[in-house]
Amino acid sequence: MKNLTAKLFVALTLAGAAASSFAAEVPASFDPKKCTIEYPKASLMNEEQGTTSASFLVNADGTVAESKVEKSSGFKNLDRALVKGLSACKFKPGTKDGAPAQTWTKVDYAWKLD
Q: What φ, ψ does residue 99 adopt, rounded to 5°?
């Protein structure tokens, strides 16, 4: 059986425009060491690899309210595993004007077999 690693690339995006007439917004983030994203067994057996890009709407308490796959890895099992794993993860909430707030954040997750 091959060794597996899943490399994580977190791309944080600003959900709103930062201008003098708008509130400054910082997107939510998370600690990848504290979140479990399991490589699906069927994907391991089929040697599926790719990068899933997904967006998560994170509440002010750090829980995920909504998620959507922006760009598929090409394999539904991998995409579902990312959404499932991160939806159960506790995020550091984003902020608006320095206070915790509901924000969108984008995550790019690279599934790779070594």
A: -105, 145
Could you tell me the CATH number of the domain that includes residue 69? Answer: 3.30.2420.10
Number of structural domains found in the chain = 1
Which distant-in-sequence residues (6+ apart) come within 8 Å of 12 by Cβ? 27, 29, 105, 106
Q: Pick the closest to residue 81 from 29, 41, 114 (CA basis).
A: 41
Single pTM value for the model: 0.78
How far apart (Å, rounded) are the C-alpha atoms in residues 67 and 58? 9
- Residue 19 has a pLDDT of 36
Residue 64: give the domain boundaries.
4-16+23-113
What would the pLDDT profile of 79-108 be if each residue is shown by its tens digit?
999 999 999 999 999 999 999 999 999 999
